[in-house]
Structures are given as structure tokens and as C-alpha cells.
Amino acid sequence: MTNTFPDGFIWGTGTSAYQVEGAWNEDGKVPSIWDTAFHTGLRTPDGTSGDRAIDQYHRLDEDLDLLQRLGAGAHRFSVAWPRIVSDATGSVNEAGLDYYERLVDGLLARGIAPALNLYHWDTPQWMEDLGGMMTRDFSEHFGHLAAVVGERLGDRVAQWFTMNEPTHPSLGAYVAGFLPPARREGQAGLASVHNLLLAHGRAILALRSAGVAGDIGTILSMNGASPATSHADDIAAAERAEYFDGRLFLDPMLGRGHLPELLAALGDTVRDGDLDTIAQRMDVLGVNWYSTYSIAAPERAAAHLAELPPRAAMFAGFAPVTAPLGFTIVPAPGLPWGGAHRQLTPGGLRDALDWLTATYPDHPDVVITENGVGYADAPDATGVVNDERRIRYLSWAIQEVADAIAGGARVRGYHAWSSHDNLQYMAGFTQRFGLIHVDPETLVRTPKASFEWYRQVVRSSAVPDAVEQQPVGDHLGIDVRGVHNARGIGGLETMDGRRVLDGLFFRTAGLHGITDDGRRTLTLLGVDTILDLRGTTEVTQSPDAIEGARIMHLPLHEPSDPEAGLFVGAAADESGVSGLGSIYREIVQTRGREITQGLRAITAAQGAVLAHCTAGKDRTGVFVAILLAALGVRDVDIVRTYAESGDLLGTGFRAEVSALMTLSSPDGSPILDADLDDLLVSPSELIEGVLDVIRHDHGTVTEYLRVHGFSPDDLGALRQKLVA
Questions:
Q1: Quick check: is 94 catalytic?
Q2: Which residues form the active site (predicted)?
């Protein structure tokens, strides 16, 4: 793995016209479909709109100076079609062209190469009034835009892109209808895909006819698709999603023609010569990547969509569109949410680049044209915006680009999205992607910590060491004398960025050796309920005796040899495979009632709850994994918490188990160290298997609990108590 980039690699940033310019009706600009939507009922959560956005139209020099300070060698921006072409007759607004000329010349004067995108979803309202993308006229008018801009700026722009993420203004606006102009045309709306592709081809022809000097290409969102579970139906659905999402636009653009399914739906929309027009040679391919889509089979999607957070409402909007194609986009189980509707999926950017290379070996050279993450960043009391989460995201994402290049991917540039906080369309400024914070009220610009971090990346052309998040909370451990593997779950982070509260739930190994000091500790911790997860015979032989605590016996597994507890059944067989995996699956599949009883006890307890078995890693490990998943804790933390047991049990517990196993041996022979190692380790794959079997059989942990009588109200009460 290398963290450096080749000589000549281009670092940049990006914005788009509607999201930053403002001045929606100034100097001859006419309304776009987004202006119309916001002026006729569409509202953002914070009341902002593109009427002003960040007012870059009036603050251009200030923003260009900030880009110069950042030091990146390129800046990708878009022109606003309705600022340049005023009506259906093709009237050109010279004031609009003058603005973009100032922008291009201002970038060049500061040593920044302009990368111009002709279209970022802001169709003029006059074009929509003519039928929008549902008419072939769209491509003719778009070709005119390309010609006008190319003739004015063609000698100064380094890279030209015809459009940004055409899936959104076609499928999102004309098929599903959740983006302006919100025309839910269903299958008929697929004509917008063809007409937008035709516009792409005609724009390239117009730019070449204008003699532009820079490279020409387009920008596509290349998400990738991963099955939500290991179920065969979800795996097949993910393959279908990757087929459609990845190839819908790329196949015709790169000369392979329309996908057969689309061609059949389009009928006579496609005319002779159209596919040749679409398949114009491209010099560069812009790739936008934020996260990988999680995919479920339509018939299995309901459990996932039942937990859809408001930020991901678009998944529900897409579901009726994609279901007939054999897939549904759903939240990825156990992965944290980043900005907007996106989850953090490390490894996905590398996978997307590898997929592109494998599927289209002769593709144009790639520039990453958008990559970033959005949070509700705000300055602290001193005015500093410390966006460490963004730095962590960019660290692994940019590292994946370096790894892909080392593996042979032809990537020659990277643009962080975005240089400035901007209007995130319907989310307003509630999700901020910028390296520069912008206050939507005062419009004050404040470079964030990520600005300085990215500045270092640009200067060194290398990825600095990642800034690790420091763990906090009682999950790090508590001291209960005479008890091994003692800790809480407080401080663990949920997928939506909240944390589990300290002091309400603890987990330990057996309490048989607890000292008087240990008992006093439990009293001080407020433990008033103990969930004993051992087998019946184990409890009979060594019952818990904690004064003032209610003891609930919830046996999750009955060992075949009660004298040795769980350990005999867990020993590896002759093939070296641990028996723990089958025991864990048995717990999941047969002890759902006991597990939900334990969860209700946690909610009902007046004080803290402690759960234990013998080692605190197997039966307790399964119970805690399901509890944490129910709370929405990230899979990575669930797995890490389980895996820590092997180290936390320590040498004292190892000696206890060794003596116990020797006593249970028919001939009294001691257990071999290698066998003891096998019993006491807590490998990640075991608890990953628990989550996998639940999701394979039920889709989500929530659905698993519901099947076993734990209602949505029960789950809500549990989360309300333990998460803040």
C-alpha cells in the first residue's frame, strides 16, 4: 500500500452553480426548475434556498482567493444554463457569459485550472415548459448551450464535462419524481434517459465544432452495489443493481448501445443514428463516489425500509422504480451514516474503480470529480470548525484512490466535494460538505480543519496518517474485584452519530469469584438487576448471590458437561473448526424469547443491569451483540467489543478454565495450551456470523426481535433509555 500519488496528479475542488451562486433573477438570469420548485412550495428544513445560496455571484473574488490559499491545482464548477440562454429561441444573455468569463479568468490568474461542467440539474423553466427531458428538443437546446459556452471560453478551460450525474435529473425527476420537476412518469419517464444521453453526445459535437482546447468528457455517479445480507436473493439483487446503475449510461456512452431492457422500454424513442451521436469519443471520465449502495431483493426489502431514517427517504421513492428491475436500495446494516442519505462504506471507492477497469478496459482516463461527506458542522466558541469526521472519511477515501492507482487504475485527478458549504438542494444547509464553512445568514466564510488538512494533501501529494477517534465511555472497562471481563457499553457510537449512555448496562464473566470489594462496586454502580445467561445446572451449582439485586435466569445454552460449563462443546473438532460458531447459531435460532426477555428487563430496571455467563464472551457476547445492534451501534464496534474479550479475560481466568477442564477430563490429563487458546479467543468472524445469520433469515435485527415478540414500541423504549 502506498499513500503517495504519481507526478502530475491533479488535486482540485468542486461546486455547482445553483448550490453556490444565488442571484437567481439578476443580470438577465431566468428561472430554473429549482427556482420554480422553491417558489411554489418546496421547502428545506432550515428555510434556505438557491435564491441566495452562498451568494458566490457577488463574492466571487473572495471565494477565488480562498481557493488560491488552499493551493489545489484545479476547480470544477458548473454554468447555470438559465443564466446563459434566456428563452426557447436561443437568446444569449451576455451578462451571464461575462460572469463565467470572470470566473474562468479569475481561476487562471490564481494558478487554478478551470474544469467546466455544462449541466448540474438546473434546467431552465422555459425548457421544461417545452417538455423538458421528455422531448428530443432537450438535446437540441442543450447542444446550443454547449456551442455558446464553448465559443466564449473554449481557449481557456482545461476540462469540459457535459453533465453531472445524469441518473438524478432523469430517473429521480421523471421516473420516480422526487426531484424537480417531480414528474412521476413511471416507465414512460425512461425516455428522459435517452434524451439526456442524446444531449451529452450533441454537446460533445458542439464543443469540438467550437474548437475547445481542453479535454472533453462527462461525470457519472459510480456507486457500486453490495448485498444487504448474505441471502442468495439479496446477492442476486445486488448484481442486478450493479448492472443497471453502473451500465445504464456508460454502455451507450462508450459505444455498446442501450441495455436491452432499456431499449425494449424505449420503443420508437430511439431513432437511426442516435446511438452513434451518443457514443462520441471522450478524453476524460469524471467519477463521483460517496458510498456504496446496499441492496436487497424487493420481496425482502420491507424489513430494511421499515427502519428508513428521514435522511434516506429517497430510498422509498426509488423502490417502486427499481423493484420491477429486481432490486431495492436499502440502508446498509450496521454502517454509520455520513452526509445526507449516504452511509460510510470503506472499500467502496476502490471497488468502484476496479469494477470500471474490469468492465470497460478501454475507458477514458478517470478524474474523481466528487467525493466527500456532509455533517452539520458548526464553529465552536472560539470560531474554529473542527471537522475531524470529514478528515477521517477523506483519509480512507483518498487512500483507496492511491491503492487503485497502484493496482493499475488510470486515475489522474481528485476533486474534493466541496470547496465551500453549499445548498444541498432539499436538505438546505443541514448537511455541509465544504472544506470552508459558510454561515447562510451572515455569509461569513471560515476554513475548517479539513481545509488545512487537504492543503497538506495538495502540497505533499500524499495522504497523511489518519487521525484516529479516541474511545470514551465505560465500554473501555470497569474494575469489579474478583470478576473478569468487566465493562459497560457506554460510549459506543450509533450509526446516526449518537452514543450509548454510561452506567446503565454492564457485562462480565461469572460472579463466582467476586470479592466484598467487588460487591460494593456493584452497589456503587447501581446494579439492581442481574441477567444470568448460564445453563440451569451451572446456576444450581454456583448461584449468584448479590444482595439487593434481582436475579433473572435466562439460559441461552445448556452445556453438555455442566462441570466444564460451555467449554467442552466449544472445543475445536478434529478439523480444527471451533464449536463456538454452531453454539452461537443455536442461541440465535432457539433462544429468541430469552433474549427479548432480557432486553425488556433492561428497559424496566430502575437501576443498572449486569449480564453475565461464565466467561462473559460467548452467551453474553451473543446477547450483547444483539442488544447493541438493536440500539443501532455500528457493526465495527459490535465486533470489536466482542473481540476484546479474549484479551480482557486475562491469565487468571485462563488458569481457572485450565483447572476446570483438567477436572472434567476422564483421565485427569491437563488441557493442551493450543486447545485452551482455541477456547478463550474471541475471533471477529464468530460474532460477524451471529449478525449474518440473523440478517440472512430476517433481514434486520429489528425484524428478528419483532418475530420474537419485541415490538417497535419495545425497541423505542430501549433506545430511549440507553442512547442519547
A1: no
A2: 370 (nucleophile)
